Amino acid sequence: MLMPTASYPYPLSGTQLPCLIDGELIRSARSFENVSPVDGRVMCTVSEADAALVDRAVQAARRALRGPWGRLSTAERCALLRKVAERIEERSADFVSAEIADTGKTLQQARSLDIPRGAANFRAFAELAMGRPAECFEMGTPDGRGALNYTVHKPVGVVAVIAPWNLPFLLLTWKVAPALACGNTVVAKPSEETPSSAALLAEVMQEVGVPPGVFNLVHGFGPDSTGEALVRHADVNAIAFTGESATGSAIMRSAADSVKALSFELGGKNAALVFADADFDAALAGTMRSVFSNCGQVCLCSERVYVERPIFERFLEALTQRARALKIGGPYEGADLGPLISRRHRDKVLSYYALARAEHGELLCGGGVPSFGDQRDRGAFIEPTIIRGLAEDARCVKEEIFGPVCHVAPFDAEEEAVGLANDSRYGLAAAVWTSSLQRAHRVARQMEVGITWVNDWFLRDLRTPFGGVKLSGIGREGGMHSLAFFSEPMNICVKL
Ligand code: NDP
């Protein structure tokens, strides 16, 4: 047991979360503190992997690839991945506590979304890998004997998985599961803000008998630290990264020398379009969810809400009222909004609240920091905020803020709404609220994004393509798209 379940998450004192390298839990000499965003308390320390430890992890992954793991059939690998899913479910209370301890997110969300999706990722990609269709082409030859071509899918090799802090377990497993299902070995680096659920996953990998070196975990920071050492490493074949667009650019530069395969899921500045013919209450409830879920820290969140003029004032008024009524609090208090991930991130979001004022926006609610009069005042809580009146070229309308905030603006015509939504350097997701079937299909298609929801938000089928255009990413993951990224197809041509 890595950490005593009964006393998790308070206190974690005395615990140093280890890295997992070649099947060994390693507590390094260098460590950093894991601070609770709920009350600023140091919960535990975390072993920091330097370049030498990263190198050990990559070498271990390389050896495992050439060892028994590389000789397992897809069915054997996938059977192990199903066991991982089962074990996550058995230990779901531990995972929920760990995720909450790092992020302060609500118990309800960790229980219903983050942890179940982590288990579902392993199960879904095991099934998909088992069901991958075979490809075979017969061809004619001049001597009339013919030839048979078939495709085999080999692993890409050693894969670096780099994950962010907003949905830590969901996003880490979203890449680890398909990478392993395709026969790769993995070196994973979670965000330094959220090491705990990844550390538990390392335990689970050991408990179900995943061979040493197949899944390695290194903790640490990004630039000039663990993350950079990993993406620069010459023996890493592919990088699956989720995080900020600027980090994506930095990783691309680091990876260029050794021409690694890249899959990037990056930032967003997503638009919601609310048409006057929409079901008002459904659009309102959906927009509340798409703006404020996870305290606005989901790459898919709507930060730009455009509402058709006839219902604009009514919708804005109702949205503001609901936002004012949101209960802010700790993870176990039945609150609607937990804290942001850290004080540092809160400073960034607050700087955008200040910028919105400077850019002549009107803050209809929020704009500051709540006061509790207890230890939560040392946390990273922030008020949900609705802004109106910004120019379309204001920085607050253009840049990703990643907090519980949106700008709401009116539009008069469908074409105008489409233009506003697409006028962004990002292109991840859009939400369209309308009761017209024709309009739904027409508008959805015109969105320059990777995914458009009509009359809903964050409804995910793991078989579908997921990713963004423009600054929001490169490539697609999900379903067969993940299997394609994590495999090298090879043609074998047999003369008959
Ligand atoms: P960051 O880009 O700051 O960090 C992501 C990960 O990359 C972390 O593990 C980080 O380490 C690491 N990292 C940072 N710099 C480097 C580097 N130079 N080399 C290698 N690794 C590095 O993102 P956040 O954690 O702040 O997450 C929020 C962002 O993620 C938002 O922009 C959001 O939109 C995006 N996101 C995109 C999603 C999508 O599917 N498109 C989904 C979810 C989030 P460390 O944190 O330790 O510094």
Structural overview:
This protein is of the alpha/beta class. The protein contains 16 helices and 23 strands. The chain has helices at 51-66, 68-71, 74-90, 92-103, 107-130, 168-181, 196-207, 226-232, 245-256, 280-292, 309-324, 343-358, 395-398, 414-422, 437-446, 479-485; strands at 16-17, 19-21, 24-26, 31-35, 42-47, 136-139, 147-155, 158-162, 185-189, 215-217, 238-242, 261-265, 270-274, 302-308, 362-365, 385-388, 405-411, 426-427, 429-433, 451-454, 469-470, 473-474, 487-495. The strands form 6 sheets. Strands 15-16-17-14-13-19-20 form a 7-stranded mixed sheet, sandwiched between helices. Strand 6 (136-139) and strand 7 (147-155) form a beta hairpin. Helix 3 runs antiparallel to helix 5. The longest helix is centred in the first third of the chain and has 24 residues, at 107-130. The radius of gyration is 24 Å and the shape is globular. It starts with 15 loop residues before the first strand and ends with a strand. Mean pLDDT is 96; it is low at 1-12. Bound molecules: NADPH dihydro-nicotinamide-adenine-dinucleotide phosphate (NDP). The site of NADPH dihydro-nicotinamide-adenine-dinucleotide phosphate has 32 residues, from helix 8 and helix 9.
